[in-house]
Amino acid sequence: MEELLAKATQGVDMDAPDAFLHIFINLMAMIPWAALFWWNLAFAAVGALLGWWRGKLLAGVIWALVLGPIGWIVVLLTPKSAKPPPLPRP
């Protein structure tokens, strides 16, 4: 924890009025954004597949993007979409 605090406060004057902003920028620089992007894309792809299987493609993608793998469970627990019966032919 002390290493993280040292990295976050590196080069920050704690008496400066914008110290919070500099600490925030340092913390955001430590986040692996590329890995998060690819994981989120994989979650969305699986959510799309599950949503397509359950008849709710858009809901599957949205739940997967918002909740990740927990969104998959939400999609699987919702009932399949019911399609209306076909119209009788005259």
Question: How would you portray this structure in words?
Answer:
The structure is a single chain. The protein has 90 residues and is mostly helical. Helices cover 67% and strands 0% of the residues. It is built from 5 helices and no strands. The protein has helices at residues 2-8, 19-29, 33-54, 57-67, 69-77. α3 runs antiparallel to α4 and α4 packs antiparallel against α5. The model has no long low-confidence stretch (mean pLDDT 90).
Average pLDDT confidence is: 90
User: Which band does the percent of strand residues land in?
Assistant: under 5%
Total number of strands: 0
Instruction: Label the overall shape.
Output: rod-shaped
Number of helices: 5
Q: Indicate the structural class.
A: mainly alpha
Order of secondary-structure elements? HHHHH
Largest sheet, described in full? none
Q: Which runs of at least 5 residues are low in confidence (pLDDT < 50)?
A: none
- Distance from N terminus to C terminus (CA atoms, Å) equals 74 Å
**What is the helix fraction of residues, given as a range?**
55-70%
- What is the gyration radius calculated from CA atoms? 22 Å
Secondary structure elements and pairings:
Blueprint: H1 2-8, H2 19-29, H3 33-54, H4 57-67, H5 69-77
